[in-house]
Design goal:
It is a single chain. The chain is of the alpha/beta class and 198 residues long. It has a single domain, classed as 3-Layer(aba) Sandwich (Rossmann fold), CATH 3.40.50.720. It is 33% helix and 16% strand. The chain contains five helices and ten strands, in the order βαβαββαββαββββα. The strands form three sheets. A six-stranded parallel beta sheet has the order 3-2-1-4-5-7. Helix 3 packs parallel to helix 4. It is globular and about 55 Å long.
Length: 198
């Protein structure tokens, strides 16, 4: 299976490329991609404002779209929140526009979303069928999924997995939390009664 991966240098992307045994990679930095992923087929893409190169999709059977500005990489200023939103929503829009222009688009698009879709709902049991929540992240996730689902009009199967907090020895949330716990600063957050999806 020939797969194309965006966001391949991130924690989930690296694991996916490894599990696939390689992939076509769309990204901003070829050196970073080669350092983290080895010898992969790389095509430059600078989302969210430019479309990905159409030639990258030749022979591709599935697209895994994981690209997005990291949520925990800094203070959420207005500019940062705009970058978080645009990297996901406009980046996905550009991707789907490119798929629309292909003579034979890949039949499957797996476009990441996040559990932020549900918002803070307290003790409510949530499922894939639950309605979206309120707040910034819920709004981003709704718009992000909406852009991905436009690919259904092209006859593609579209999957939008709502990914939770990722814990892994080599990065993700765990790498940021462990130093605090090692200094005795870890513990419950807030009242300790908040739900945390792992």
């Amino acid at each position: 299976m020939r797969a194309l991966v965006t966001g391949a240098t991130g924690l989930i992307g690296r694991g996916l490329v490894r599990a696939l045994g390689g992939a076509v990679v769309l990204g901003r930095d070829p050196e970073r991609a080669r350092q983290r992923l080895g010898n992969v087929e790389f095509h430059r893409w600078r989302p969210p404002h430019e479309p990905p190169p159409a030639e990258a999709f030749e022979g591709v059977e599935v697209v895994f779209h994981l690209a997005g500005e990291p949520l925990a990489a800094g203070r959420w200023s207005r500019a940062r929140m705009r970058a978080i939103r645009d990297s996901r929503v406009l980046g996905t829009r550009r991707l789907v526009e490119t798929l629309r222009g292909l003579p034979t688009p890949p039949p499957v698009l797996v476009s990441a979303s996040a559990i932020g879709y549900y918002g803070d709902r307290g003790d409510e049991v949530l499922t894939e069928a639950s309605t979206p929540g309120e707040g910034f992240l819920a709004g981003v996730c709704r718009a992000w999924e909406s852009e991905a689902l436009r690919a259904r009009d092209l006859g593609l199967r579209v999957v939008t997995p709502r990914i939770g907090i990722v814990l892994a020895p080599e990065g993700g949330a765990l790498a940021r939390m462990l130093p605090l716990f090692r200094r005795g600063l870890g513990g419950r957050i807030g009242s300790g009664r908040q739900w945390m999806s792992w």
